[in-house]
Amino acid sequence: RVGDTKMLVSIVKDTYGIYGDDFLGTATGSDLGATMGPSSYPLVYLVGYPGATENVVLEEARSAGLADDLRVVRTGAELLEKVGADFAAESGPDLILSEVKIPVLNGVNAALALRAFEKGFNRDPVPIVFFTSSPLDEPLTKAVNYLRPARHVKAAATLVELTQQVRALCGKLLEVRRRS
Predict the structure, then answer these.
(1) N or C: which end of the chain has fewer CB atoms below 10 A?
(2) Are 4 and 180 in contact (CB under 8 A)?
(3) Which whole-number Å values give the CA distances from 41 to 21, 50, 66, 180, in the listed order?
(4) Which residues have a Cβ under 8 Å from the Cβ of 107 and sit 6 or more positions away?
(5) pTM of the entire predicted model
């Protein structure tokens, strides 16, 4: 698992420019046909999405086959509890999709704590996508840069646009996974 994550992180950084604007760009048919690795992520956490948004993200992620195991947690504190237990059991997430504004412990603070867990358990950093209604302001930009591999994606405002956006996001994430 550690090697898979390391390879994924490298591919995301080098091939898809996770820190650049093209990470979630439009995939071409030939790109999607190049299946070299696993077709889904073994474990993905969805963190802190409210009602209708959670329903769209969950439904589209399941429909796309994003993960073998797709887990929903409501707060940053709950994420840390679950990931801590995963790490203790020699397991752990392969990808995290998180809102920023969530109760108890916000998404950024939870991600910062997660990075400390990863160091303590000698793990490679899990890719995090902040798929969020929060704008990319200066403090969030600094946090995303510090939390690498991480990416901010501004969520669409309407459910129709959100559904299309999540579908495209899942497609791009699966493309990255297939190339790993």
Answers:
(1) N
(2) yes
(3) 23, 23, 6, 11
(4) 47, 48, 76, 98, 99, 100, 101, 130, 132
(5) 0.80
Residue 150, φ and ψ in degrees, nearest 5? -150, 160
One DSSP character per residue, the chain reads -HHHHHHHHHHHHHTT-TTSTTTT-PPPHHHHH---S-SSEEEEEEES--HHHHHHHHHHHHHHT-EEEEEEESSHHHHHHHHHHHHHTT---SEEEE-SS-SSS-HHHHHHHHHHHHHHTT-PPPPEEEEESS---HHHHHHHHHT-SEEEEEPPSSHHHHHHHHHHHHHHHHHHHHT-
Distance, in Å, from the CA atom of 172 to the CA atom of 166, rounded to the nearest integer, reads: 10
In angstroms, what is the C-alpha Rg of the chain?
A: 15
Give dist(CA 57, CA 49) in Å, integer: 8
Percent of the chain past pLDDT 70, that is, above it, reads: 79
pLDDT averaged over every residue in the chain: 83
